[in-house]
């Protein structure tokens, strides 16, 4: 089932033509009407006339999150306030937040992208979707909300928090699908366990739309087998609008609406484009945005463009699962490790539950990594020798797969902190 077959299944050459037309008029408009992009292009010595093909995107200067901060709150906007119908804001890790503005058309394209995505995973008018992403300045809640209404699903706008009440509503309203962060779903599953709720027996839940933070295939396997559902990856950033693109039923990469967003994958060091299949830093240009134009934004997420056709029939470009951000790579005693690799290794060990925390410290010149992992109730034991053996096994798996000598600490079920929004699993005390 397609939401917009004309676009989703368009011939690849036609899509490139369409992208070029949108790109050309976007660059013309920005050069004429947007002070920020005009100045950026001028100082880089590029003119709209230089944009002779889609590949000329690479001639344009990059844009960074810091640009949005420096132009707080709305100095990068292209339209007057009277055309803005919504704001969102992202708190970021330091300094001023970044503010997103949306015109009616911006909201329409965002909703269209989500309608395509939800349809591609089989969520439609028969479904009751519980939206447990945060509502408010965060884009997750309202984004999914309007996308789901568009496809005719019945929305239960629970937002995050009050987990027990959410679980009751899920049962009473026969909720069939949930949208939230993977860490919140795991928290729900934990609370459900304590309440004696078995998802297979006591709920109608079949699908979960999970994103807003990195998660791995082994986490997916764990969620699916423990809850008896199918879990799909959803991706987006507030600069792009919010959550937008998902995998389809094939779960073979995330389909990008090529008419809405143009993706480049670049070598993070040289800025040169990489071949399809090669992992690098994602750079995006939003082809339709009116209020807050986004051109060559260095998202910092690590992904690759995927080759070949998807059996679902969609011809839209696909990106591989986000494995982390170029700025969250940990360098531990000179070895590069992404938190997602640690998660992947941990989640394949059957005795480990779904919670872990990574802590980095520095003793003199040496980095130490300590990983706290929760053990599943059925494997947690008072017998010290069992626990010592398990700990040694986990440490040796981490060493084998990541070449990292980590100190592992076993925790009882429920001991580690839970997260309602995005999980924070890495504490880097080396800088403090
Ligand atoms: O997290 C938008 C969103 C809401 C996406 C709900 C999916 C679902 P921001 O708060 O701006 O926007 O954070 C964007 O989150 O650059 C990635 O690093 C990360 N991220 C989002 N989705 C995924 C995903 C929303 N599926 C940042 N896998 C992005 C890995 C993700 N990382």
Strand content: 15-25%
Average per-residue pLDDT, rounded, comes to: 95
Bound molecules: 5'-O-[hydroxy(phenylacetyl)phosphoryl]adenosine
The geometry reads as globular
Structural class designation: alpha/beta
Say which CATH homologous superfamily of the largest domain is assigned.
ANL, N-terminal domain
What does this structure look like?
- With 432 residues, the chain is an alpha/beta fold.
- It folds into two domains: 1-326, Rossmann fold (3-Layer(aba) Sandwich); 335-428, ANL, C-terminal domain (GMP Synthetase, Chain A, domain 3), CATH 3.30.300.30.
- The protein has twelve helices and 20 strands.
- It has helices at residues 5-8, 12-33, 35-44, 65-70, 104-120, 139-150, 163-172, 182-195, 199-202, 217-227, 339-347, 384-402; strands spanning 86-90, 98-102, 128-131, 154-156, 177-180, 207-211, 230-237, 242-246, 254-255, 261-266, 280-286, 297-303, 318-319, 324-325, 330-332, 335-337, 352-363, 366-375, 407-411, 426-428.
- Strand 6, helix 10 and strand 7 (230-237) form a beta-alpha-beta unit.
- Helix 2 (12-33) packs across helix 3 and helix 10 (217-227) runs parallel beside helix 11.
- The structure holds 5'-O-[hydroxy(phenylacetyl)phosphoryl]adenosine (DLL).
- 5'-O-[hydroxy(phenylacetyl)phosphoryl]adenosine binds at residues 90, 133, 139-140, 211-214, 233-238, 242-243, 299, 301, 322, 325.
Features of the shown structure:
four-stranded antiparallel β-sheet, single chain, six-stranded mixed β-sheet, Rossmann fold, 32% helix, GMP Synthetase, Chain A, domain 3, alpha/beta, 432 residues, binds 5'-O-[hydroxy(phenylacetyl)phosphoryl]adenosine, 20 strands
């Amino acid at each position: 089932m397609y939401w917009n077959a004309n676009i989703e299944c368009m011939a690849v050459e036609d899509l490139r033509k369409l992208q070029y037309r949108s790109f050309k008029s976007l660059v013309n408009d920005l050069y004429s009407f947007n002070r920020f992009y005009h100045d950026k292009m001028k100082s880089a010595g590029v003119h709209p006339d230089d944009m002779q093909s889609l590949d000329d995107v690479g001639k344009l200067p990059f844009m960074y999150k810091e640009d949005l901060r420096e132009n707080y709150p709305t100095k990068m906007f292209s339209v007057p306030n009277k055309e803005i119908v919504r704001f969102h804001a992202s708190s970021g890790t330091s300094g001023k937040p970044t503010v997103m503005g949306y015109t009616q058309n911006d909201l329409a394209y965002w909703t269209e992208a989500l309608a395509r995505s939800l349809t591609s995973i089989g969520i439609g008018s028969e479904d009751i979707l519980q939206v447990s992403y945060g509502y408010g300045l965060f884009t997750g809640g309202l984004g999914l909300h309007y996308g789901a209404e568009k496809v005719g699903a019945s929305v239960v706008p629970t937002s995050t928090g009050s987990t027990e009440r959410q679980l009751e509503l899920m049962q009473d309203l026969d909720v069939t699908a949930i949208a939230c962060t993977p860490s919140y779903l795991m928290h729900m599953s934990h609370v459900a366990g304590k309440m004696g709720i078995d998802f297979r027996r006591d709920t109608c839940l079949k699908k979960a739309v999970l994103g807003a933070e990195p998660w791995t295939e082994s986490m997916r396997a764990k969620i699916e087998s423990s809850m008896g559902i199918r879990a799909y990856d959803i991706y987006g950033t507030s600069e792009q609008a919010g959550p937008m693109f998902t995998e389809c039923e094939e779960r073979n990469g995330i389909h990008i609406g090529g008419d809405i967003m143009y993706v480049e994958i670049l070598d993070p060091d040289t800025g040169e484009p990489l071949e399809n299949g090669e992992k690098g830093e994602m750079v995006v240009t939003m082809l339709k945005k009116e209020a807050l134009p986004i051109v060559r934004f260095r998202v910092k997420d690590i992904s690759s463009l995927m080759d070949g056709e998807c059996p679902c029939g969609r011809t839209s470009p696909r990106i591989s699962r986000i494995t982390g951000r170029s700025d969250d790579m940990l360098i531990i005693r000179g070895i590069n490790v992404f938190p997602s690799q640690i998660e992947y290794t941990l989640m394949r060990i059957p005795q480990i539950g779904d919670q872990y925390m990574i802590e980095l410290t520095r003793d003199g010149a040496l980095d130490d990594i300590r990983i706290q992992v929760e053990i599943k109730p059925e494997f947690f034991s008072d017998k010290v020798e069992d626990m010592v053996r398990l700990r040694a096994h986990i440490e040796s798996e981490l060493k084998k797969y990541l070449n990292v000598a980590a100190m592992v600490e076993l925790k009882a079920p429920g001991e580690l902190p839970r997260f309602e929004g995005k999980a924070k699993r890495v504490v880097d005390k080396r800088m403090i």
